[in-house]
Write a structure and sequence with these properties.
alpha/beta, seven-stranded parallel sheet, six-stranded parallel sheet, 15 helices, 40% helix, 16% strand
Amino acid sequence: MYNVFLYNAKKAAKIIRSQGVIKGSKTVVSKIKKKNEIAVTKKNVFKFYHYLLLENKAAKLSNRLGNELSLAWFIPDFGIGSGGHLNIFRIVYLLEKLDIKSDIYICGESQWGDSASVKGVIGNYFFPLKSNVYILDDKVDVNIEYDVAVATSWQTAYYVRSFDNCVKKVYFVQDFEPYFYAPGSAYSFAEQTYKFGFYGITAGDWLKEKLASDYGMVCESFSFSYEKDLYKPQEKRDKDIRRVFFYSRPPTERRGFELGILALNEFCKKNPDVEIVMAGWDVSEYEIPFKHFNAGVVRIEELSHLYAQCDVSLILSFTNLSLLPLELMASGCPVIINRGRNNDWIDPDKNMFIYVEDDVNEIVEALDQVVNKKVDVQILMDNASDLLENSSWEKEAEKIQKYLFKILEG
């Protein structure tokens, strides 16, 4: 009986964490009213992790298929606003412009319905791809031949391991995904994929170095850029109002929401007139005592204007660097970021961002230095100018194109 109670309590806590206190509590109460207890559905581990048991198959094709390079991208299902999928679809789109053909395989069912519906969503909310879109269920039953099969997450790596209609297998790695979990089964399932023998193409040097040193993966890396037509300096309205931007995503633990609001609260006690602009998630269900604007999930077309209204930004990441720092700097907003190789790989001279330890007091001090104009942040902007001016996603796609040819040539 105690085990059942404990299971129910944990399930209730998980619902509240994922949905927020108010909405989550209502969901729990609704379940209790419906069955006089939290509905307990037996978890089917065998079905949920079926892909772990897919047969391991080596690539069976030995030569390139033709003049036009062909890729099969294996991706998890996605939601609107997914940054990881935005990067994947952006690279697919730019590679298409370089005469590289891609098809996309959704691993598992898609919330968007059939293949045609999924392609429509990708075109409406991401990029207008030429790619065919297919949906895989519990098997990798693909008869089309490709030059390269590309895994894009640890789950999809198991599908690619079982796919043999290709010449080479590549792992498009955007973050160190074991860190998404506490040490345990899921952590291990993710970690094992770095030992599959795939060629790694990583988002940045931190991942390249980590996968090479810890797992012996052969890796190449690309860098980050930003959409130059979207992110650019803009005039700040209400110049007398001081604002701090905070990337706020409570359900994404690696973005340090709790550390951030603790530091911001201490800062605002000393600077009560400063408004904190919070975007990335609807935080209305959190107790936030300081003056703030809850922007929630913002349309990508409106982000640069929002950034430009702020005097400084606080961006925390405990895994790989977010795309936001470059987008913020391009919009004229300097960045405070937590110190670590995972974040500073894009800033080799360590002079583009203000770096802080994962410490409330140090973050407060850095905010005070910038907001109260005790440091000249224009120096940071000048230091970032070369990178901002010379970087482009097109250049990064060209790097990936070269890597693909290099991998196929052995």
